[in-house]
Amino acid sequence: MDEIFGQMREIEPDAGLFRPITLNMMGLFLERRAIKDKRPIISLRENFLEDHLAQCIRREDVREHAPAVLKGMITRRGTSRAKSVSELSAETRISKDAVTGCLINLREQGIVRCVDQRAKVWELSHDLVAQLLNNILRGRWHMSTPLLFLSALALPIVAAGYLLFLSNPHRAERHDEEQTEVSQSMPADIRKGRAFGIDPAPDQIVDWKQLKEHGVVFAFVKATQGISFNDPAFRKNWSAMKESGIIRGAYHQMSGGNAELQAKAFADQVGRLMLPDDLPPAVCFEEPAASGPAPTIRDLDIFIEETQKLFGRRPIIYGGSLLRDAVKRGSSPSALFACPLWIASYRDSPALPNGWSKWTFWQFSDGQIGPTDSIREVFRGDTNLFNGSEADLRKFISESKL
């Protein structure tokens, strides 16, 4: 341990500027630690980082203003939201100088970063940071057993390094801003008779066999984004899902423009790997987290048309508030409404966009709630229901062919 930390400090003394070799060391360490402790790596990761984050925001130099400032940078879903110093000052009624000072001190701990120096816009360093801080600030955090082997100097370095290890410059998180407070467990009558599934974040490490044992029937994983990004974990996840007996699906994260080329990039990555018993291809229509324009309904229509030609199957459309707003604003091609809807809506019943009379898949949780306590022990992330049984799901797959 001491040797690893020493090497990390020699390679990169600034905790905010880790290079790939440093990050690989950190990832290897956590993987070995998880195996040694015989527990999922997600448990080690969250306990470790929650302790670190809780200590950081209680430091004397930030504790007065950090809770209010950080709350303003977290969406209701628990993801990062970029804010300017002026916006944060107006929302919190804290002076701009005090907000700036707080952010600078939090940056030293690897919690926030400045994304636009001229406009003084800041964001949290990662959506995982936002999720864990959201738990802490809402009182859902409990201190785990202290990790006594970590020195005061090593702790912020390791935390910042692992957060960057998880991050991906091309990654676009799927957000749905329309949501309400939900109960801590789904009503039993909603779950009854419906197949349960997940869609892990692109960088999330999961144990597919363990998930199958805990009742996961199907899963979607990210394959591509835009016209040039192929998710590096896709092929590994794709094979592992099949080996574990989980019905598998792949999705493409849309960006604005070049819809035909995006469909071709998706087909190049997934087309030859997709078998008849796999879920139809899915497209994620929402505001991208990375820079770039959001897709339009016209983009989606072109993508759907091209995808049907390339795959010979009717694709699934994933969306939330952006999709609802887009179909409200103007006329939408009727071909879109023939596609199965995968709705993101964190409420007791999903809010459907105009044009659809039913949902096929429902992403009802982002990990803050779960269908059972047992699944939360091995997975915290987006969870879904299919509007039917496992037998109905397999029938749906067979009927998706055009």
Q: Number of helix segments?
A: 17
Main beta-sheet strand count, sense and barrel state: 8 strands, mixed, barrel
CATH superfamily of the largest domain: Glycosidases
User: Would you count the extended β strands for me?
Assistant: 12
Distance between the termini: 56 Å
Estimated helix fraction: 40-55%
User: Spatial order of the strands in the main sheet?
Assistant: 4-5-7-8-9-10-11-12
Q: What number of structural domains do the residues give?
A: 2
Structural classification: alpha/beta
CATH class of the largest domain: Alpha Beta
Q: Which band does the percent of strand residues land in?
A: 5-15%
Order of helices and strands: HHHHEHHEEHHHEHEEHEHEHEHHEEHEH
Low-confidence stretches: 11-25, 40-46, 140-185, 369-373
Looking at the overall shape, the CATH architecture of the largest domain is Alpha-Beta Barrel
In CATH, the topology of the largest domain is named TIM Barrel
* Rough outline: globular
- Mean pLDDT, to the nearest integer, reads 76
- Report the radius of gyration as a whole number of Å: 21 Å
Account of the 3D structure:
By secondary structure, this protein is of the alpha/beta class. The chain folds into 2 domains: 2-166, no CATH class; 188-398, Glycosidases (TIM Barrel, Alpha-Beta Barrel). Strands 4-5-7-8-9-10-11-12 form an 8-stranded mixed barrel. A 3-stranded antiparallel beta sheet has the order 1-3-2. It is built from 17 helices and 12 strands.
Highlighted features:
17 helices, single chain, alpha/beta, three-stranded antiparallel β-sheet, TIM Barrel
